[in-house]
Task: inverse folding
């Protein structure tokens, strides 16, 4: 599995040398700035060649986390993460599901509280496929328990090697 992810990273970085990893992404984020139709045409062409098989961790990084930060992140987050993740230079996992709640985010128990300029996150996540291969995780935590349960949640990008973060198989 690690070899497959290494092969995918190498393939993505090779494509990124010419901007083919993110054809529709703006040039300031490492893409070519072309249309989604161009990206689909390249994908169809690429599918006719032998390339590394897909892996969920690669797809989560390039198809979920990178676009989410590109759409909702701060300018600083975009500058730091968008191209890094679209290139799959570093991998991400989802930190959404919780023990006893599964993927029902409305019952989210993980909390994040402001402490000065920092957020302190307390809670557990489970079923985070690819966490052992990822340098980062997108974590959803409850930041406002006073609002209805489908509101008051915030997404954080968390380094896997942050203090208190532990990855274990279940």
Result:
């Amino acid at each position: 599995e690690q070899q497959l992810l290494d092969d995918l990273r190498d393939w993505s970085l090779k494509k990124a040398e010419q901007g083919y990893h993110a054809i529709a992404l703006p040039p300031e984020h490492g893409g070519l700035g072309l249309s989604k139709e161009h990206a689909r045409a390249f994908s169809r062409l690429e599918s006719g060649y032998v390339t590394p098989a897909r892996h969920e961790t690669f797809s989560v990084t390039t198809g979920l986390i990178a676009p989410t930060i590109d759409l909702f992140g701060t300018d600083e987050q975009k500058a730091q993460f968008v191209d890094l993740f679209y290139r799959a230079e570093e991998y991400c996992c989802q930190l959404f599901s919780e023990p006893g709640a599964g993927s029902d985010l409305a019952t989210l128990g993980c909390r994040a509280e402001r402490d000065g300029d920092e957020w302190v996150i307390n809670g557990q996540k489970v079923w985070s496929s690819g966490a052992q291969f990822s340098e980062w995780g997108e974590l959803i935590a409850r930041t406002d328990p006073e609002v209805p349960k489908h509101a008051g949640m915030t997404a954080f990008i968390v380094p896997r090697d942050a203090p208190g973060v532990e990855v274990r198989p279940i």
